[in-house]
Specification:
Elements lengths: L10 H12 L7 H14 L21 H15 L7 H14 L5 H10 L2 H24 L1 H13 L8 H5 L9 H12 L16 H9 L5 H14 L5 H11 L18 H12 L19 H7 L8 H4 L1
């Protein structure tokens, strides 16, 4: 999910649309200004004195279906920065989607947020996530991959037991290697490896490997950044990762049964940079990624092999 996709001549319109999504009818709060400043830093756009101005949806012109879709998604996450979401922000994003002729189910999520329909939100978000995850499981292991994924997620079944010792032996690797750090990550957090009771299926093992590679912990703040990183990194509909973590860890909607819902964890600097950081990697870790050749490498070398940017540049940190 690349977010630096607009031509220089379109960026003024893009920032006006983002500003309107944040708050159509009033001054911006500090975190809303930070959202715009961070995205400006990523895109190389010089914000005008006084900041972007509100814009009517009908005045937004963006070339290309990919860029139009991305603008709708970016405007949607801008609208979800506020808690509760502003009805006027939601109305603008919905009107923008109609005007641009691009459909994304995040507009349904926004409408359900305004109405407080958490069950509807959960169903929409889970349907989108499961569509992508089952596709990856099928590509990886055929029909049994889908069975293993659903069995582990909903029944806590032990799956991929034939792979368990591959993961256990990672603890024998030298200190500081990606594999040893991944093994420590699972052990210290009490997470089951593929094949263990309560462990994750191998088709989604990339998630915790990604935690170690990207350097994000498993606190709510770390999870929202890891989900954002995966969203940026995934080439095919990565937005479902971003939508999930913002709902779960910022809007307080319990999408996943595996962890409790949280509020207030959307740090615009951290989330937008994690998105961009994921998009700049030279490998999609969420799509049939073979991480095993990297496991014996020192962690920093593994990061370099993936083209991983640093956590947060000084220019965006303050």
């Amino acid at each position: 999910m690349d977010i630096d996709v607009f031509s220089p001549r379109e960026l003024g319109t893009v920032f006006n649309a983002l500003r309107t999504s944040l708050n159509p009818g009033g001054p911006l709060a500090l975190d809303e200004k930070v959202f715009l400043e961070t995205y400006a830093g990523i895109t190389g756009y010089a914000l005008p004195p006084g900041g972007p101005m509100p814009i009517a949806a009908r005045d937004v012109a963006i070339e290309g279906a990919h860029a139009r879709k991305r603008l709708i998604q970016l405007c949607a996450i801008a609208a979800m920065l506020a808690r509760p979401v502003r009805p006027a922000s939601v109305a603008f994003v919905q009107e923008l989607a109609r005007h641009l002729g691009e459909r994304d189910t995040v507009t349904d999520v926004l409408e359900a947020l305004v109405k407080g329909r958490h069950l509807s939100i959960r169903m929409i978000a889970m349907r989108r996530a499961l569509r992508a995850m089952t596709k990856e499981a099928y590509r990886s292991e055929g029909a049994m991959g889908v069975v293993r994924l659903l069995g582990a997620m909903f029944l806590k079944a032990s799956v991929n037991r034939d792979k368990l010792w591959n993961y256990k032996r990672l603890g024998l690797l030298p200190e500081g290697t990606l594999g040893r750090e991944y093994w420590k990550h699972l052990t210290q957090n009490g997470f089951g490896a593929p094949g263990e009771p309560g462990g994750i299926p191998e088709s989604v093992a990339y998630h915790d490997v990604g935690h170690v590679l990207a350097g994000y912990d498993t606190t709510p703040q770390g999870e929202i950044q890891q989900g954002s990183f995966q969203a940026g990194n995934r080439r095919e509909d990565g937005f479902f990762f971003l939508q999930f973590v913002i709902l779960q860890f910022h809007q307080g909607v319990k999408v996943s049964p595996a962890t409790g819902a949280q509020t207030g964890c959307f740090d615009p600097r951290a989330v937008l940079w994690a998105l961009h950081r994921g998009a700049q990697c030279n490998v999609d870790i969420t799509h049939q990624w073979d991480f095993w050749p990297l496991m014996a490498l020192p962690l920093e070398e593994a990061r370099a092999r993936c083209g991983l940017l640093g956590r947060l540049p000084m220019a965006l940190a303050a």
